[in-house]
Amino acid sequence: MADLELQTTFAELQSKVIDTQQKVKLADVWLEQLNRMKTHAHLTDKEIIIGTERNPTWSGVCFCRGQHLGCGDGTKGTVGNL
Question: What pTM was estimated for this model as a whole?
Answer without folding.
Answer: 0.52
